[in-house]
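Progress narrative, Year 2. Work on Inositol 1,4,5-trisphosphate receptor-interacting protein from Penelope pileata advanced from sequence curation to structure prediction during this period.
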Amino acid sequence: MPVGIFRVCLVVITAIVNHPLLFPKENGTVPENTEEIIQKMKEREESLRLEKLRLEQEIAGQEAAQKALEKAAKVVEDIKEERVPWDMWTALSMVIFLLIELWRQDFQEGNWQDTGADEDDMAVLGKAFKGVAFPNKAILASFYEKRILGTTGDMARMREMVEGFADDLLEALRSVCNRDADMEVEDCMGVGSMYENWRVRKPFVCDLIVPFAPPEPYCFRSQIWCSGDSFPPDEQGYGTIKVCRADEDVTGCICDKTKLGEDMLCLLHSQGNTTRPSSEMEDLLCFKNTQYLDADQVMKWFQIAVTKAWNKISHKYEFDLSFSLLDSPGALKIKFRSGKSIAFNLTPVVQYENSDVYFISHFPRNGLAADLPSSTHWFLTFAVYERRFIQLISKMLPANACHVSCLQILSFLHGKQCSLTGPSGLTNYHLKTVMLHLLQTRPSQDWAPEKLEDRLQDMLKFLEKCLHEKKLYHFFIGNGKVPAELGFPIVFQRAEPLNLFRPFVLHRDIYRKTIDTFHEMLRNTSALINEYTVHIPLAQTNGIQKESI
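Result:
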């Protein structure tokens, strides 16, 4: 306590002694430049304040960086802890997604054939038919009798004449060819609408295919798109043909794939059985420097051979023979002295294994068909099986069944509309595919002759649905319900269904043109049919029915 009192007294005494009033002004030591000193002190204070702010910012930045590093380390630690559960959920989600996708594809494959059989599906279709005047049964029957039925006899006479001449021409072709070096030509077969009795539009054109094989000791070994190797989408429906020696290993030897040393010899292949020279393979109609059969080379060979054969037998006939199309191997035209002419196609093909599926060198082109991937890719045709299926199913249908009549009328309507508005992406082959699908899915009694009108409407509705969905599947490829009596190769039944309308997805302009042509054909149906129909009393026809289907 005394010490505290002493300190207070000392402070008071010091304050009194240093108070300015105790000293005179003349003895003062206050400097004259007081304002300058104060200004410098303020500047110093300001600089200290700024330095303080800078240091505070640096400290804050260091603290933020430290916090970010700590947060990142924590996130990494969390990721490490959750990696296993997250990967498990991701994998599980992917598996579930794949299973759903596989189930969807299997469901589509199992049900794409059944579209035409479901009456409920048919009921919701036909939007384009609303308000369309559709001819009744009497008018359709009269039209069919007058416009279509009379052409059957003409087709039969033309087929007989063309087949006889083609056999003579091929026999002459065999005689002018070198049996030891040239391709061996077999007998021709008729395919297509002329031989299925549903072609209606003139001029009639017979389509004949001619199988050929290489000379001994060579053979053809083919590879198709559905054989297991991956083919791009634009090559679906195609295959390649390799020219090999008959005794050559199918799987190939390692000596063809690796370089053996000079002192090493393959025990499977002798020195004389090495890779053949390029000129020899070109003589076998292969693409340059390959063993793959070239469609362009085949076309040139066949045209030259046909020309030689005709020169040998031309003196026997009183007509001229010429090529109507130079980009097709056997598009021939017979011209009589009277001015009349007959056209037919003689197309070389290669048999696929021991079946009646054939690789065709050149396929008739249309607005929807895409260009060939290359001249070594050959399109597969199932025309022989299509003809056999129609013959087989016709035996199970009622007498005078209307399936061919429906296809003929639909083909006529489409052809007439295209002659008015120009070609579209639809072809007669698409129309035949529609008929084949309905033949398989509808009961046989539904094709009785008196149901012509109903079945024609079914075909139009089915076609409308396919156009709307841009999906029309090939009848044979991917169809597991093909009758066993046909002996159809199982490899094609197990293949993925082939969408004939896939080009519509890629070419919107052609799709729009096709849709417009189809709708215009529906609107003009009555006018087109009435133009070729004899007059029928009103009491018999009851006019033209308005159908909303």
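Residues 425 and 509 are 10 Å apart (CA to CA). The domain at 120-149+397-534 is CATH 1.10.1410.40 (Poly(a)-polymerase, middle domain).
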